[in-house]
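step: validate -> pass
step: tokenize input -> pass
step: predict -> running
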Amino acid sequence: MKKGRLIIFHGVGQPLEMQNRNLRNVQKGEILVRNIYTTICGSDLHTYAGVRKEKCPTVLGHEIVGEIEMIESSHSHQDYQGRQLNIGDIITWTIFASDPLSSNALDGMPQKGDNLFKYGHGLVDGNDDFHGGLGEYCFIKKGSCILKIPAALPLPIAATINCAIATVAGAIRLAGNLKNKNIAIFGMGTLGVTCAAMCKDAGAAWVGAADIEHKRIQDALLFGADEAVNIKDEQTILAGKFNSNFFTKSIDVVFDMSGSPDAMENGLSMLAVGGVAVWVGAVFSSRKLQIDAEVIIRNLLTIKGLHNYNYEDFNYALDFLNRNWQRYPFDRVVEKEFTLDTATEAFDYALAHKPLRVGIKI
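step: predict -> pass
step: emit ->
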């Protein structure tokens, strides 16, 4: 029986454990992939540090690129774009698998469909163990959306499609037509800088960026932001205000990628009449927001939340990166690389230095 290595996460404060485990048989509609590259997402770091909880033991990592090793006969042998899938093809796939015929999926929300499974979040139970990025293999389950990776797209960049880039694509979809709009973005991690570039690609007139880290402010400018401010330095967010000299124009759309209640409240206060707020970052527990309902009503404001993304967003993400990875410095998103053997060092480095991403070469 074939074996593979994987890194087991047992819980907060416990060491990551390398194990060799048997690979089960490929089941109906599945594809077996040899993982090649994984990037550590912010949600992986939150789990590792205890900010959010996952079932344990588990195999973290869901931003994955892999090489097809086996395709079960009942699989369509096609990716989402209808391209033929063959042994040896390099692919990525949605963070989730679900029933595409369930009501939520048919309503454009397959990430909330029936029989939902999320890669990098599943329980390791001795039977179905290879379902995360920090392992040598991954079983791509029936109900996953798959995309072939263009040969010219570097793997460290392609890995981020599976979560960060596709999530931003979903946020852009919810925001509506951005042509000639003025945009504000709070939180300039990978989601935020990608959002700046995507807004510019979509025709936004002006993009402002806000964060509390100086380096991320500089990153925002490289990814298309017209202006950027360090809120921490100006101590405006702590006072519940925002520097009126920074955003000099009316804001049509505000994106929150930070999850900060202060940021979400300040973002709402900046919106012009008819403005839209899209909230993405608040996927962990924090304080309740203080919202003035009268302002929301009188100013005709709209608040939209997004968790993960749908198939069209996933496809849009690949198209966007394929067109723009050289226009913006996406080759700098992965700031340091590690191996599967040094996964602990990778997590510790990411928590200490707060890079946009670290990569794991497998």
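step: describe -> The first helix runs from residue 42 to 49.
step: cleanup -> pass
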